[in-house]
Write a structure and sequence with these properties.
- By secondary structure, the chain is an alpha/beta fold.
- It folds into three domains: 95 residues, Alpha-helical ferredoxin (Fumarate Reductase Iron-sulfur Protein, Chain B, domain 2, Orthogonal Bundle), CATH 1.10.1060; 160 residues, FAD/NAD(P)-binding domain (3-Layer(bba) Sandwich), CATH 3.50.50; 138 residues, FAD/NAD(P)-binding domain.
- 34% of the residues lie in helices and 18% in strands.
- Strands 3-2-1-4-15 form a five-stranded parallel sheet, covered by helices on one side. Strands 6-13-7-8-9 form a five-stranded parallel sheet.
- A hairpin with a 2-residue loop joins β11 and β12.
Length: 456
């Protein structure tokens, strides 16, 4: 996965020293801090924070439970709406969701209630004798879920709660999807992602089969024939290309591939680390990549974006993280050419400066060059093309290369549902994927129940 960087030296520090750079980005609240913060909540009726949460967590209720020292009750309230409440408390952009909507979020108060940290406090400190949710009586139905990421596992868990059996097909060796392979290591450190998966699976009724890839050893038309319903939580597995000559040269790779290697590395000191690096992109993945390179010991990391700061999809909070970690951010520069050394390896990039001209991005004819030992693309992900021989799959890949679904996550093919980043609906956020899985499970259940009620 990381062969393109094998000519670079390994990290200059020991594994222990580097691991210390990937502990929790924000330390957890103490019990005293949580009590004080919970007391700030006004427990609003029709709370705007709850309406801002994609999964509809009853924020006021769980915070009141924390205030009343009912941690288990707070956690159950969170997990009932979002079974990935622990990871979402760490990775959600709360500053643009629930905390942005908080009525305390105004000039006089200075800051909203720390909803994300309170959610983490509840889930991390809950102590259950067993799984907090019980399965309904068995329905005798079995549903296939393709993809063991947040969308797929959220769907599987809700289906299991409703009494269905679920078989999850996952291409990679571990479940968790983006949480396991794509989130910055300082946001979900250690084995947290796998511990959350283990907790989710403890409800029972969910079987995960690994090494199963759609279009390889798995065909959608076969699943459609064998199971009572199919849910596709495929994510976006293909990295977009820059469209430049030399894009496959040593030293140029997708940021998501490096992040995955970093998250799976048992010895961080063996990772190849460039002394100077360029990250192309403007989203949270670009920030994650740039910050982690700095924490691994890179001397210079420059994040380059073709538009201005106000157009960056990364949140203001994420941009501040980059600045705090001494990432240089260069805006108004569009990739033009990869520069190579005598051995044909990446030596930098040439960019053309840009500007806005009547609301359109225009090139200026001025050029800049940035030296680098490696270049990382973080310009977005796309869906892999549908399997050539699977006509059913080809029928579903529609709008912009994604799967079109209705509000209940039904595709155009009866019995097949989809959610998460692979659908043309909503934001590409973990919390949104969790909600998609939950809503799809409810739709699957309702459709199966309605079908069973039809007269024969």
């Amino acid at each position: 996965m990381i062969e393109t960087l094998q000519h670079l030296p390994p990290a200059a520090d020991s594994h222990g020293a580097l691991a210390a750079q990937f502990t929790d980005l924000a330390p957890p609240l103490t019990a005293r801090q949580a009590a004080i913060e919970a007391a700030r909540c006004l427990y609003c009726y029709d709370a705007p924070c709850m309406r801002a949460c994609p999964t509809g967590i009853d924020v006021a209720s769980f915070i009141r439970n924390i205030h009343d020292q009912n941690i288990n009750g707070a956690a159950i309230g969170i997990l009932k709406a979002n079974i990935f409440g622990g990871s979402c408390a760490r990775v959600c952009p709360t500053e643009i969701l629930c905390e942005s909507a908080c009525v305390r979020n105004h000039y006089a108060e200075r800051e909203p209630v720390k909803i994300g940290l309170l959610q983490r406090h509840a889930v991390d400190n809950a102590r259950f004798a067993g799984h907090p949710f019980q399965r309904a009586p068995a329905t005798g139905k079995t549903i296939a879920v393709v993809g063991a990421g947040p969308a797929g596992l959220s769907c599987a868990h809700r289906l299991a709660m409703l009494g269905h059996d679920v078989v999850v097909f996952e291409a990679r060796p571990k479940a968790g999807g983006l949480n396991e392979y794509g989130i910055a290591k300082y946001k979900l450190p250690g084995e947290f992602a796998q511990q959350e998966v283990d907790f989710l699976l403890s409800i029972g009724g969910i079987d995960i089969q690994y090494g199963q890839a759609l279009g390889d050893n798995l065909q959608l038309h076969d699943l459609h024939a064998r199971f009572d319903a199919v849910f596709l939580g495929l994510g976006l597995g293909a990295s977009r290309r820059l469209g430049l000559t030399g894009e496959d040269a040593p030293g140029l790779m997708a940021a998501t591939d490096y992040i995955a290697a970093l998250r799976q590395a048992s010895d961080l000191s063996r990772l190849p680390v460039p002394r100077r690096a360029i990250v192309i992109g403007a989203g949270n993945t670009a920030i994650d990549m740039a910050v982690q390179l700095k924490r691994l010991g890179a001397d210079e990391v420059t994040l380059v974006y073709r538009r201005g700061f106000d157009a960056m999809s990364a949140t203001g909070h994420e941009i501040e993280i980059a600045k705090t970690n001494f990432v240089r951010i260069k805006t108004w520069a569009s990739p033009l050419e990869v520069l190579f050394d005598d051995a044909g390896r990446v030596a930098g990039m040439r960019f053309e400066e840009t500007r806005m001209d009547d609301a359109r991005l225009a090139r200026t004819g001025a050029f800049i060059e940035i030296a680098a030992d490696a270049v990382f693309k973080a310009i977005g992900q796309a869906m892999a093309p549908p399997p050539e021989l699977d006509t059913l799959a080809q029928d579903l890949w529609q709008e912009g290369g994604r799967i079109v679904v209705d509000a209940a996550l039904r595709t155009r093919v009866p019995g097949i549902y989809a959610g998460g980043d692979c659908v043309a609906l909503g934001q590409d956020l973990t919390v949104q994927a969790v909600q998609h899985g939950k809503l799809a499970a409810l739709a699957i259940h309702n459709d199966i129940v309605a079908e069973a009620a039809w007269p024969t």
